[in-house]
Amino acid sequence: MKSKISDLIANDIIHHGMEDTTTGNYVESFDMYIQEFDEDSQKYLLEHKQDIFDSISVNPNIADVDFDDNEINMYFYLDGIFDRLDKAIYNTSQVLGENLELEEVQEISDEVIYGEDLNSVLTDIIKKFKGYRMEV
Question: Facing residues of 65 across strands?
């Protein structure tokens, strides 16, 4: 199936929301979004606004979406927002019986990525993976 321009624009709006959300939902102002484009592009976007909204509605990352004249309120499936580390943190929390919120998962992920221990853990894992003899 070939993509339409409205699908590509919808994907841009969705991915912007997915990158910026800290709660699982994100509100995008359509008027503010189109301000980033030149006059001809703005005209196109306004003429195809309903097609763009329709494309957003059927995107597999969208759990639910509400539209009004100017705002797109998107609710995302967590799997679409999470990277592999986030998914591992969330799944481990579920095994522990904890229901972490998206913001908590992201905080833990940041702590893992930017924490002091990551370099030494990665060094050990890479050496083990590549068959290095570990020194005691």
Answer: 74
What are the tens digits of pLDDT across the range 68-115?
878 999 999 987 888 889 999 999 999 999 988 888 998 999 888 887
Contact indicator for 70, 29 with CB cutoff of 8 Å: yes
Measure the CA angle with vertex 50, ends 44 and 54; round to 5°.
125
pTM of the shown model: 0.73
The radius of gyration of the chain's CA atoms, rounded to the nearest angstrom, is 20
Tokens in use for 22?
Answer: 């800290």
Sheet holding 25-29, edge to edge: 25-29, 71-76, 62-67
Amino acid letter for position 13: I
CA distance 133 to 130: 9
Taking the domains of the chain in order of start, what are their residue ranges?
5-80, 82-129
Assign 30 to helix, strand or coil: helix
